[in-house]
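in:
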């Protein structure tokens, strides 16, 4: 399979296949006494249009799972299918194409270029995709508008609040119209009012634009807005369900005591 075929296959496989399917996934660091099972037989799927929260205490394997889902890391064993395509059959370049074309990333620390305007930060993924300048600009403006920042396009990150910087990062993740948005503790660096603002934006993008989202958070206040929660402990998925179901079972509370 050549590289563009890999990307096309992923698109063609959308119908009927989950966006993400992890089967019996292990990620093991070190050996013997030093062995760490960052993921220990994880089975997890993310359906088209879902908003999944991955929760659990620090060290429970959330970021490891996200990095594998984002094709930034490979499992030790087990199968990861993205839109039905077995990611293990792809080479590094093909995985890079999957990231570029199908996955948007949002991080806790925003990860914006410091001396670059909001507009240019959002344009960047399209530069890598060799989208012509004019189209780039139009799409970046639309993405900034979608996150409520149409009036801040020329500002550099230091001239923006934390919440605004995270909005720029979300616009940058959305500009290439990914089929999956991955957010690792996107509200972790924000004050409580701004957290809710960003959470509302993510919920709106999910409900109104149908964007599939997987978000790591350790805050129950954030998780109550999503459609499904997967609860991690010691590299395993301890429980799964709607936020209400996990609250009833006491699992959503458990990790916070
Ligand atoms: P979380 O995001 O839930 O806090 P991580 O996925 O970052 O947890 O880590 C899960 C476990 O794997 C932790 O015990 C962590 O120390 C370990 N781990 C993560 N990355 C590495 C690595 N590169 N080398 C060794 N151990 C690692
Ligand atoms: Mg983490």
């Amino acid at each position: 399979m050549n590289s563009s075929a890999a990307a096309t296959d992923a698109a063609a496989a959308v119908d009927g296949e989950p966006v993400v399917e992890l089967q019996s996934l292990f990620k093991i660091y070190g050996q013997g006494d030093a062995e760490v099972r960052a993921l220990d037989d994880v089975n997890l799927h993310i359906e088209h249009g879902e908003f999944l929260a991955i929760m659990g205490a620090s060290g429970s394997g959330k970021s490891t799972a996200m990095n594998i889902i984002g094709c930034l890391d490979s499992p030790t064993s087990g199968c990861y299918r993205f839109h039905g395509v077995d990611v293990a059959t792809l080479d590094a370049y093909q995985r890079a194409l999957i990231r570029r074309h199908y996955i948007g990333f949002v991080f806790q620390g925003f990860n914006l270029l410091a001396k670059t305007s909001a507009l240019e930060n959002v344009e960047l993924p399209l530069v890598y995709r060799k989208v012509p300048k004019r189209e780039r600009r139009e799409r970046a403006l639309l993405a900034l508008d979608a996150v409520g920042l149409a009036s801040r396009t020329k500002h550099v990150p230091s001239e923006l609040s934390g919440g605004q910087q995270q909005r720029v990062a979300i616009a940058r993740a959305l500009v290439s119209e990914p089929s999956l948005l991955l957010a690792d503790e996107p509200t972790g660096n924000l004050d409580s009012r701004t957290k809710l603002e960003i959470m509302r934006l993510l919920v709106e993008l999910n409900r109104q634009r149908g964007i599939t989202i997987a978000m790591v958070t350790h805050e129950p206040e954030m998780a109550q807005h999503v459609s499904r929660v997967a609860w991690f402990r010691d590299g395993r998925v301890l429980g799964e369900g709607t936020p209400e179901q996990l609250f009833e079972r006491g699992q959503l509370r458990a990790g916070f005591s």
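note: The first strand starts at residue 20 and ends at 29.
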